[in-house]
Design brief:
InterPro entries: Acyl-CoA_dehydrogenase-like (IPR052904), Acyl-CoA_Oxase/DH_mid-dom (IPR006091), AcylCo_DH-like_C (IPR036250), AcylCo_DH/oxidase_C (IPR009075), AcylCoA_DH/oxidase_NM_dom_sf (IPR009100), AidB_N (IPR041504). By secondary structure, the chain is of the alpha+beta class. It contains 22 helices and 11 strands. The two termini are 36 Å apart.
Length: 564
């Protein structure tokens, strides 16, 4: 029997609690990420991320992430005199996070670096975005859209020349000022509308040609309509879709600045901010356009084709962001069980807890490997194989990786028990954020159907996928059998569009798992690849974590646990 103690000090003495996960390097303590950077880039690239990783692992960064979510953005539609101002104000912690994300070159910087001949610019940026997003995921949205805007802007040389240097700047400049006074800029996008959502061809915003500005060339239009879900309304420029042409039936893309060339404020009204499940630090809004001026980007009627490069880049960030959430969740879980004892021993040494954490770790590593592989494809823009792999790999990864975050976050939270259910742990923030990337840039069905569209219209994408997964054939019998079964499924469905559409999710899952499996079989430690193939590619896989049947679990848990 424990000896009774007296005195308040004894009541308040804390034992057997895991210390705060802080003081570690988010890059160098992540073996899966570091290995991927070395695989697709070089030691110099990894070394360039050490400072970012150290800052991301500080208690200060963690605190700013929590404060930015606790103190959500506020909309002020009118000033005290009744003037329409539509100002969204953010907590200082939001600006702290944004300043460092931009300063670390996580926005559009790699496009400029790539144009200047730098190697591995997008791999470096992807690894940095993955690591820094673990501080707080919400501010990654404007960072991502700024990154993604550049390839779309290249449809017009003049617009690209005007905007790219500001979007690629490493200086965070959130003020509402004329471009001539700006040292950095942020971009957003406005695609969806309330009546159509993902079906952007149902958009009703209309674009009417109008006079522009004598000293600013371009085809100017006045836009009138409503945008249902536009994040970061305080950004400097937006790519939006609207119906142009004489009958307003030609969906086109437009560049919409918040400040016009004459220095006046554009007519861009923020109707309200969305009250969201997660992503609460980020301001997502409904916008009203009434005489709002914008320059057409690309040809009339080619809006989707013009903006698709922006969508592709943001989908990559959805994969990176999902993998980042997974890594943060697994890091918290593995750290906790390494420092918490129960039932006579450290939790990490308990066979069933090892099973759970090892399973979570394998899921996280598979997501990291696939995300970084797709980022590497952006570093080879003129390679046909890389372009085709990016085309098919992005919707596959977006579909699968973003869907795995929610169950993983729930299981990781459970590893902390009641401690994981309280806000101070950070796990509720991760859990609320988990479904976001499944919805952003096309839900699961949209991405699964995009996979079918690519397979049916672009035969080179299947060849690229086959080349990628075929590189692992012969290394693991389970992988080979799963690949053969998947190819048989594709063959059986070819020419059967209804069956193909009905099974689109099943096919997307299998093709994504094979991409992940190929990377792990070829490059990951044997214990990681073995567990992945035995569980994910085995018969009857149901997705329940902690049901592994063998494997070197202790080695996998040790590989994923942060070292502070």
């Amino acid at each position: 029997m424990p000896t009774p103690q007296t005195g308040r000090h004894d009541l308040r003495t804390v034992t057997n609690q895991a210390p705060l996960l802080a003081g570690h390097n988010v890059v160098t303590s992540d073996a899966a990420l570091s290995d991927a950077v070395l695989r697709h880039a070089d030691t110099a690239t990894l070394d360039s991320l050490v400072g970012l990783g150290a800052e991301a692992g500080t208690a200060e960064a963690r605190e700013h992430g929590m404060l930015a979510n606790e103190n959500t953005p506020r909309l002020t539609p009118y000033d005290r005199y009744g003037n329409r101002v539509d100002e969204v104000t953010f907590h200082p912690s939001w600006h702290w996070l944004m300043e460092r994300a931009i300063g670390h070159g996580l926005a559009a910087t790699p496009w400029q670096e790539q144009a200047d001949g730098a190697a591995h610019a997008h791999v470096r940026r992807a690894a940095g975005f993955f690591a820094w997003s673990q501080t707080e995921p919400g501010h990654g949205c404007p960072v991502s859209m700024t990154y993604a805007a550049v390839p779309a802007l290249r449809a017009d040389d003049a617009l690209a020349k005007e905007w790219t240097p500001l979007l690629a700047s490493r200086r965070y400049d959130p003020g509402l000022r004329s471009l001539t006074d700006k040292v950095g800029a942020l971009a957003g996008m406005g695609m969806t509308e309330k009546q159509g959502g993902s079906d952007v061809r149902a958009n009703r915003t209309i674009a009417t040609p109008t006079d522009g500005f004598a000293d600013h060339p371009g085809e100017w239009y006045a836009l009138r309509g409503h945008k249902w879900f536009t994040s970061a309304p305080m950004n400097d420029v937006f790519l939006v879709l609207a119906q142009a042409g004489d009958d307003h039936d030609r969906l086109s893309c437009f560049v919409l600045p918040r400040v016009l060339p004459d220095g006046s404020r554009n007519a861009l009204d923020v109707v309200r901010l969305k009250d969201k499940l997660g992503n609460r630090s980020n301001a997502s809004s409904e916008l009203e356009l009434d005489g709002t001026l914008a320059i057409r980007l690309g040809d009339e009627g080619r809006g989707v084709r013009t903006i698709i490069e922006m969508v592709a880049a943001t989908r990559l960030d959805c994969v990176l962001g999902s993998a980042s959430l997974m890594r943060r969740a697994v890091a918290e879980a593995s750290w906790h069980v390494a420092h918490r004892s129960a039932f006579g021993g450290v939790l990490a040494d308990k066979p069933l807890m090892q099973n759970v954490v090892a399973d979570l770790a394998v899921e996280s590593e598979a997501a990291t490997a696939l995300a970084m592989r797709l980022a590497a494809a952006v570093d080879a823009p003129h390679d046909p194989h890389e372009a085709a792999l990016r085309r098919i790999g992005l919707p596959l990864a977006k579909f699968w990786v973003s869907k795995r975050v929610a169950p993983l976050a729930a299981e990781a939270l459970e590893c902390l028990g009641g401690n994981g259910y309280v806000e101070e742990s950070g796990m509720p923030l991760i859990y609320r954020e988990a479904p976001l990337n499944s919805v952003w840039e096309g839900s699961g069905n949209v991405n699964a159907l995009d996979v079918l569209r690519a397979l049916s219209r672009e035969p080179e994408v299947l060849d690229a996928w086959l080349t990628e997964v075929g590189a692992a054939r012969g290394a693991d019998d389970r992988f080979d059998a799963y690949l053969d079964d998947t190819l048989a499924l594709v063959g059986a469905w070819m020419g059967e569009p209804e069956a193909m559409e009905r099974g689109a999710r099943r096919l997307a899952m299998r093709m994504a798992l094979l991409l992940q499996g190929a990377l792990l079989v070829r490059f990951a430690p044997a214990e990681v690849a073995d567990i992945f193939c035995a569980s994910r590619l085995g018969a009857g896989y149901d997705g329940v974590f902690g049901t592994l049947d063998g494997g070197d679990l202790a080695a996998v848990v040790a590989r994923t646990t942060p070292v502070a």
